[in-house]
Amino acid sequence: MEVIILKNAEIVATTAAGLVSELLRVQADAVLGLATGSTQLALYRSLVEKHQGSALSFKQVSTFNLDEYLGVAADNPQSYRSYMNREFFDRIDIDKRNTFLPCCGEGENPRLVGPRYEQKIREAGGIDLQLMGIGHNGHIGFNEPSSSLSSRTRVKTLTKQTLKDNSRMFTKDEFQPKLAITMGIATIMDARRILLLATGESKAEAVQKTVEGPISAMCPASVLQMHERVTVLLDEDAAAGLSNRDYYDWTYLQNEALKDRFSDK
Ligand code: F6R
């Protein structure tokens, strides 16, 4: 696991955007795994800026999001589909027909969505780079603590903590879903590369458990220790609980610039 600690959240976002554009430079038709949430907003902003200001194109890119609420129609502003369109897809040159979320259409059996999503990911050739955040409880996607580390895309019940964390996005009168369809942990682990972003002191404990704790279903993100190519990008606050910090900084200094990190296709 490569742990990179950067000065602030803005630099985390621009560094992540730099890594994504580096990948697209060598693999224009890459398959990206995407996430929603507050942490990703600065990343999308930075990618949009790169698209507008340089030749960064998403024309040939396909995307698969980690999760989608169940019981929220795609055109509802609270859906993750709406978030993705608003914050990213509508602002770049991607072909929206190549953007996928594990949505459950009205009247559809939600249990069929997972296997179909897995199939779609396989047909696309698998995910080249999965971008993600982390919950305060160590969740990735909506794989809440105690999720099977071998899980596949399926319906999950959100924890009370996740509902509380996400309640800031909903007004009092809005329906806040308690269920979601999420990529499974094994699905995430199939991605060829993973980039985890965490910022802010509220994430410090989850980050410490993820990077330095035992691998446990009680901190789903800790399974990333088993993945060959994970980069964890942190700001100072999110890194505050790490005991091996000196080594991460030392390793980072020894590495050459991030340039070309993703160019060994
Ligand atoms: C959302 C997702 C979640 C978030 C996590 C952190 O698609 O996959 O795992 O990444 O809940 O959310 P923020 O960034 O809002 O703290």
Largest sheet: spatial strand order:
1-10-9-6-2-3-5
Shape: globular
Q: What is the averaged pLDDT score?
A: 95
The count of β-strands is 10
Largest sheet: 7 strands, parallel
Radius of gyration, whole Å: 17 Å
Structural class by SSE content: alpha/beta
Helix tally equals 8
Low-pLDDT windows of residues: none
The distinct bound ligands, ions and cofactors come out as: fructose -6-phosphate
Span of the ends, CA to CA: 19 Å
Give a summary of the structure in a few sentences.
The protein is of the alpha/beta class. It has helices spanning 9-26, 38-53, 80-87, 110-123, 160-166, 185-189, 204-212, 245-254, and strands spanning 2-6, 31-34, 62-65, 67-69, 99-100, 129-132, 154-157, 179-182, 193-198, 230-235. The strands form two sheets. A seven-stranded parallel β-sheet has the order 1-10-9-6-2-3-5, sandwiched between helices.
